[in-house]
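My main concern about presentation is that the manuscript never shows what a single data entry looks like. In essence, backbone conformation is discretised, so a fold becomes a row of integers matching the chain in length. An entry of this sort, consisting of the sequence and the corresponding backbone structure tokens, reads as follows:
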Amino acid sequence: MTVPIILYGSPVLRKHSEEVIEKDNIHEIADKLFDTLKKAEGIGLAAPQINLLKRVFAIDTSPLIKNDITIEKFEGIFINPLIIDRDSENIIYREACLSLPDIIEEVSRPEKILVRFQDILFKTHEEEMDGIKARIFQHEFDHLEGILFIDKINLLRRKLLTGKLNKIKRLSKI
């Protein structure tokens, strides 16, 4: 079941998400995340982006594979994720966001991270991630903290985006 994606300007995108508990209907939440993500042809979608303040997000690298066959196909749901450790070396990569349409900016993030999360059965996993998987994980994790990728870009660059950001804000009120 697809649902609308919340756009920049909505207060929900700036709030801290609550833990998912077993009585939450995680299968329904996961279905909404994946269905909406696939329809939008995105690579990651966090619960706050579908107006749900829960600590869960979906990742699907399928759209990236169309342009780069070296990217590993990966699809997953991450419940109550934590970033336990970050590599001290950052790399710069262009990022976009379904809640900020038509904005693509260079963002510096750690290349490698160590994470802990629960799967759909609430089984806990710990995993070291790198490359695009680590990048998407960090981007979506930020959503759960009320942080957007534009918060991580150069202040001057962000100032130059004011017109586009205001336009998205107006769309979010429609």
The chain has five helices and seven strands. The first helix runs from residue 26 to 40. The chain has one domain: 11-172.
